[in-house]
Design goal:
By secondary structure, this protein is of the alpha/beta class. It has a single domain, classed as Class I glutamine amidotransferase (GATase) domain (Rossmann fold). Helix content is 30%, strand content 12%. It has nine helices and nine strands. Strands 3-2-1-4-5-9-8 form a seven-stranded mixed sheet. A two-stranded parallel ribbon has the order 6-7. α2 links the parallel β1 and β2. α2 packs parallel to α9. The longest helix is centred in the last third of the chain and has 14 residues. The radius of gyration is 17 Å and the shape is globular. The mean pLDDT is 92.
Length: 272
């Protein structure tokens, strides 16, 4: 976590730049994304997050990375969709405190901090076991370090993603979120993602931030699962961005992709 804390200090140092989406936006961090307009009144989105709240057994607090939940939430909401929040265990969603640090948080995060309705949903998230995913029009898997501990291990999540995909419902996510696709199956009972084009956070970004303690690294695990893994790189991968659309599966490389992934998922819904 040492390098991640250094990153926070750098963000604060550059705070005088004063950009709309944060001081590091000119470098590619939390870039502004202008989404298309859709008429999705009456449609429903489900955002799923981790329930894990610390790195290792006695490590720093973690959870979902703020913008990976807040960006898709507000993008779905903007187009008239109803949005529910769910997590692996249900109840209060742990949010990585670093993601809300000044200079690091996004404009979506700032809006969340003033939004009592959204905060209440995050405090009382629905347990995934208690949801019929096929009652939604899209399923979004938020990332963050906590997701490395539970999304990729959940048999329940894998089964429900499989059911949603079979029903033609767009699924996807960003950063560590695509780990939630690892246990999903297609109609033949085979891996849903083998041979598919996907992205997720790079091993390079994980190493650059010195958060190697997590049990699953998305790039490594997706490659092992037979995914055609794609990504972009930058001088520091936290400033990189990449989005991949493969059929009705939409994935984003990291925290910079939340709004774009949500928009592309809505484009699929609008065309169905």
């Amino acid at each position: 976590m040492y390098k991640l804390k250094i990153f926070v200090l750098i963000a604060i140092t550059f705070g005088l730049i004063g950009c709309a989406n944060g001081p590091l936006e000119p470098f590619g961090y939390h870039p502004h994304y202008e989404s298309q307009s859709f008429n999705l009144e009456g449609k429903k989105a489900l955002i799923i997050t981790t329930s894990h709240d610390q790195l290792g057994e006695d490590g720093d607090p973690t959870g979902v990375f703020g913008s990976e939940m807040t960006a898709p939430y507000y993008e779905f909401l903007k187009q008239g969709m109803e949005v529910d929040l769910a997590s692996i265990k249900g109840g209060e969603i742990p949010i990585d405190p670093i993601s809300f640090k000044w200079g690091v948080k996004s404009s979506y995060d700032s809006r969340y901090q003033e939004d009592s309705v959204f905060q209440n949903k995050a405090k009382h998230s629905i347990k995934i076991d208690n949801i019929d995913f096929t009652q939604y029009d899209t399923i979004f898997l938020a990332g963050g370090w906590g997701a490395a501990y539970d999304l990729g291990y959940s048999e329940v999540l894998g089964q429900k993603i499989s059911e949603a995909y079979a029903a033609g419902i767009p699924v996807g996510g960003v950063c560590h979120g695509p780990l939630g696709l690892l246990k999903a199956k297609n109609e033949k009972g085979e891996s849903l993602i083998k041979g598919r084009r996907l992205t997720a956070v790079t091993d390079k970004q994980i190493h650059e931030l010195s958060v190697d303690v997590t049990p699953l690294h998305p790039e490594t695990e997706l490659r092992k699962a037979g995914v055609i893994y794609e990504s972009e790189s930058a001088f520091f991968d936290i400033f990189a961005n990449h989005v991949v659309v493969d059929g009705i599966i939409v994935t984003g490389q990291n925290q910079n992709a939340g709004a774009e992934v949500a928009s592309k998922m809505m484009a699929i819904i609008a065309e169905q």
